[in-house]
Amino acid sequence: MDLLGNDYPYSTSALTGKHALVCGASKGIGAATAKMLAKAGADVTVCARSEEALNQLCQELKTLGNGNHHALPLDLEDTESIRTAVSDLLQQRGNVHILINNAGGPPGGPLLANTVNDFEAPFKRHLHAAHTLTQIISPGMEEDGYGRIVQIISTSVKEPIPNIGLSNTLRGAMASWAKSLSRELAPCITINNVLPGFTNTERLGSLASSINQRTGKTVEEVHSGWMSQVPIERLIEPLETASAITFLTLPASGGIRGVSLAVDGGRLRGI
């Protein structure tokens, strides 16, 4: 399936004139989302710490659509830098209409193995950053009459996943934050969450390696155990998740607000 080619599911002009800011865009689901949005015609600003990776991504985005694309190197753990950089972005490139809140997860391991201090950096990178970005960006969304905010979090919001207790805690906080905002934001702004399942990313590979080191299980055994929980019996590809995220940014998704959409191959058992 060529989701950026003949199998692209949306109009390539669906987001023309819309400015998207994608966080955590240097790799994985973030990079895939930037590509899908660019293909839909959006002007995409990509954000991550690695300027080199962002510049490479921008070159690829130029081949996918006619939008203007921009790299914004930024450390999401630095709240003041976020305020300065994004305020400058709005002055230079105009209002942001689509905000994708996304960042790398914390290390795996038992929850009680973490100190209180271990919570600080992940919460800054996720919850504090998302809150700060939304505070800065949402007034422009309201001004232009169009806003779409999507958090990329995890299926652990619905069912905590063993051995990533800190991540489970963090993702739950993000989901509650977004649901609260869904009752407060202007009518023209939607906010939703996408919950990736076992996805073919570097992050999943690092979690498998972490389990291997703690338990002695081979990486292959870890993957096999994961796939036994997934009815489609394979990993989700990042572009598949990005396709769902992109739908939630379209005008046609305006009636969807405050939901958490799992893209997990059927792993979740709850209704």
Q: Can you describe this structure?
A:
By secondary structure, this protein is an alpha/beta fold. It folds into two domains: 19-197 and 238-262, NAD(P)-binding Rossmann-like Domain (Rossmann fold); 198-235, no CATH class. It has eight helices and seven strands. The protein has a seven-stranded parallel beta sheet with strand order 3-2-1-4-5-6-7, with helices on both faces. Helix 2 links the parallel strand 2 (43-48) and strand 3. Helix 1 (28-39) runs parallel beside helix 2, helix 1 (28-39) packs across helix 8 and helix 3 (79-93) runs parallel beside helix 4. The longest helix is centred in the middle third of the chain and has 25 residues, at 120-144. The mean pLDDT is 94.
Topology of helices and strands:
Elements: E1 19-23, H1 28-39, E2 43-48, H2 51-62, E3 70-73, H3 79-93, E4 98-101, H4 120-144, E5 147-152, H5 165-181, E6 189-196, H6 202-215, H7 219-227, H8 238-247, E7 260-263
Parallel strand pairs: 1-2, 1-4, 2-3, 4-5, 5-6, 6-7
Helix pairs in contact: 1-2, 1-8, 3-4, 4-5
